[in-house]
Amino acid sequence: MAISKKGSRSIVVNDINYSWLIRRKVTYNQEIFGTPQLNVAIERADQPGSTLVIHTDRPHSKSIETKATDIIPITPKDVATWISNALELGWNPNVPGPQFLVQLIEGAMSRR
Question: pTM (2 decimals)?
């Protein structure tokens, strides 16, 4: 699954270009089941393969439950760190295949 170019951002980690995108809306299931966190998708920009999907522990700003004081922005530094961590967990962005799903709990990344 390729990431849409519209709204995506670029980042270079270890001399490799990646595209990343934050889901703009909270899904219906997230809102109903009380898990309205930000989700981030990342893939290689020049050679899309397996997409990294990160379920963060940060509240989504468009959720009805999120207060302005709860919002923690996602920075390019966060994304670079997450890419490095996912590579250590076994994500291979060069090879086409299923999404590589991970989650962040209190800043620690683990496979989902």
Answer: 0.82
